[in-house]
């Protein structure tokens, strides 16, 4: 069954299936930007909204993950920008699971949070989601050389965090 | 490299174990149902951009095609003018100068213009179009006769007539403005026009009075000079075919000449032949004579006066000419009307005056004779030394 073609025809169930197939990658990427769950929910909802409306610009199902991650990163950047300009623009934190609880249960978060801020998204995209470096370069709008530099730094740090302790 | 790959593989395998999502976020992901009102756009943003791009390209192409069309129209104006325009040429207007006009036979005209000429749809004179044409051609009145020996004036007037004609065509064509006609006023086109109306083939650029007509080597075209705006305007109000001649038609026309300070009405007699092949106008004017030139002698006929006689002196000369003729006739005095066609200064300071003498004959017929007169200034008088009929 081709979920993407169905989604393009307005089938919301198919669209949800595409999201669920890639839910961990989507979720962990949003987590790099925000710690508050309400902010993450807002970023996810906005991303899904835009993605469903613009689904026809996604060329193939194999490309769906990178396509929606691009939408997510753009959305998160926009939310961060509006948050920086007006802190009240984002919804107030609700008494969901605290970040500390999340961190305790998430190995990825434990590792990523220890990296330098600029390395976190690159490391997640490469080591957790498994996106090729040239795609990361396009997603983050940086050179592939810069991507390689960040991966190299992240590799050393993650190796230490995961295996030397 | 293998070391890196191994490390990456180990890290990836380790991190891949993490499938934790908080309940709140999991709820959003699992239960996200796009709003019922939201539907995928029929065309994506990329497609939309593509269509806009195509639309812009199409607009540019249309603009380019219109530009080419206008250029083509302009070129048409230059190369293939209106079929119904008429052309006039003066026979025997061959210049004696070194680089100006040379006479041609009609056969040569046809041959030379065969690649760009038009064919007259009818062999009848279209008076309405001829009337329009006279608005441009009337600048020739009393300026292109054989009696004038001012070659620069002839050149200037011929070119001026051509330029006025091209301008009049731009007014008729809505898509062209006056500046477009600059492209039509090239040396070749002007020369073709003059060839149409005069039958005189011109090669190269004609020398002119630069105050009225100039030639720009930069644009390779003629342009109006600084004094061209003080030249008169003509309006032909009536044209009638007086009679058919062997070569074409004798036409009478009423033409109003408007200058800054006065209007003068002319009745003009024109001999016209129709060219079968032509570049711009199908009429060749073989003579144009104003039968009621204004009195006193209108010095503004000529672009540059080549003599220094005042109006009073000219009138005195005309009186003396009438006296001279009456004495020569030795009969009862005749009331002569003397029209001065042109004046030129001789090397000895005397003047050669070309005149048309009009009088009523014994049978009440109108008689016109042309004379050349040698006149000289003596004290306060103008002496007539010689008066020969041409």
What keywords describe this structure?
heterodimer, A: 165 residues, mainly alpha, Rna Polymerase Sigma Factor, Chain: A, Arc Repressor Mutant, subunit A, 2 domains, 10 helices, 0% strand, B: 390 residues, alpha+beta, Nuclear Transport Factor 2, Chain: A, four-stranded antiparallel sheet, 8 helices, 33% helix, rod-shaped
Task: Describe the model.
The complex is a heterodimer of chains A (165) and B (390). With 165 residues, chain A is mainly α. In chain A, helix 3 packs parallel to helix 5. Chain A folds into 2 domains: 96 residues, Rna Polymerase Sigma Factor, Chain: A, CATH 1.10.1740; 63 residues, Arc Repressor Mutant, subunit A, CATH 1.10.10.10. Chain A has 10 helices and no strands. Helices cover 73% and strands 0% of the residues of chain A. Chain B folds into 2 domains: 251 residues, no CATH class; 84 residues, Nuclear Transport Factor 2, Chain: A. Chain B is α+β, with helices and mostly antiparallel strands and 390 residues long. In chain B, the strands form 5 sheets. Chain B has a 4-stranded antiparallel β-sheet with strand order 6-7-8-10. A 4-stranded antiparallel β-sheet of chain B has the order 11-12-13-14. In chain B, strands 1-3 form a two-stranded antiparallel ribbon. Chains A and B meet through helix 2, helix 3, helix 4, helix 6 and helix 7 of A and helix 1, helix 2 and helix 3 of B.
């Amino acid at each position: 069954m081709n979920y993407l073609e169905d989604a393009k025809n307005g089938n919301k169930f198919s669209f949800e299936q595409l999201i669920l197939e890639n839910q961990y990658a989507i979720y962990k990427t949003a987590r790099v930007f925000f710690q508050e769950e309400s902010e993450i929910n807002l970023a996810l909802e906005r991303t899904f909204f835009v993605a469903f409306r613009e689904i026809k610009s996604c060329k193939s199902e194999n490309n769906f993950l990178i396509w929606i991650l691009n939408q997510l990163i753009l959305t998160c950047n926009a939310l961060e920008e509006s948050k920086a300009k007006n802190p009240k623009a984002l919804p107030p934190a609700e008494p969901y699971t605290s970040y500390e609880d999340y961190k305790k249960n998430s190995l990825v978060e434990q590792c990523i949070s220890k990296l330098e801020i600029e390395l976190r998204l690159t490391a997640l995209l490469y080591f957790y989601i498994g996106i090729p470096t040239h795609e990361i370069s396009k997603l983050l709008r940086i050179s592939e050389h810069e991507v390689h530099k960040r991966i190299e730094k992240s590799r050393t740090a993650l190796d230490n965090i995961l295996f030397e302790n | 490299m293998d070391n890196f790959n191994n490390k990456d593989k180990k890290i990836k395998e380790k991190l891949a174990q993490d499938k934790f999502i908080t309940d709140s976020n999991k709820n959003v992901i699992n239960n996200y149902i796009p709003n019922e009102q939201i539907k995928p756009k029929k065309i994506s943003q990329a497609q939309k951009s593509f269509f806009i791009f195509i639309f812009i390209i199409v607009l540019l192409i249309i603009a380019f095609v219109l530009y080419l069309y206008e250029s083509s129209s302009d070129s048409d104006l230059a190369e293939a003018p209106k079929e119904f325009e008429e052309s006039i040429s003066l026979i025997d207007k061959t210049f004696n100068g070194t680089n100006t006009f040379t006479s041609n036979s009609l056969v040569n005209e046809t041959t030379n213009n065969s690649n760009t000429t038009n064919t007259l749809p009818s062999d009848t004179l279209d008076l309405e179009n001829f009337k329009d044409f006279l608005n441009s051609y009337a600048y020739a009145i009393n300026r292109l006769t054989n009696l004038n020996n001012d070659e620069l004036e002839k050149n200037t007037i011929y070119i001026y007539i051509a330029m006025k004609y091209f301008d009049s065509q731009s007014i008729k064509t809505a898509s062209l403005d006056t500046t477009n006609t600059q492209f039509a006023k090239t040396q070749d086109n002007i020369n073709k026009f003059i060839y149409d109306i005069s039958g005189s083939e011109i090669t190269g650029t004609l020398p002119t009075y630069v105050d009225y007509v100039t030639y720009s080597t930069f644009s390779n075209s003629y342009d109006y000079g600084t004094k061209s705006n003080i030249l008169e305007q003509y309006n032909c109000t009536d044209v009638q075919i007086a009679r058919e001649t062997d070569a074409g038609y004798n036409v009478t026309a009423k033409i109003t000449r408007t200058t800054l300070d006065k209007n003068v009405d002319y009745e003009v007699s024109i001999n016209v032949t129709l060219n079968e092949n032509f570049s711009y106008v199908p009429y060749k004017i073989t003579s144009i004579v104003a039968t009621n030139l204004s009195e006193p002698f209108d010095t503004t006929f000529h672009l540059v006066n080549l003599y220094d006689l005042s109006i009073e002196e000219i009138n005195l000369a005309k009186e003396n000419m009438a006296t001279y003729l009456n004495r020569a006739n030795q009969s009862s005095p005749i009331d002569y009307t003397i029209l001065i066609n042109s004046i030129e200064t001789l090397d000895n300071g005397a003047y050669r005056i070309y005149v048309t003498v009009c009088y009523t004959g014994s049978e009440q017929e109108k008689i016109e004779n042309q004379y050349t007169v040698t006149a000289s200034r003596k004290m306060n008088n103008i002496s007539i030394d010689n008066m020969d009929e041409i």
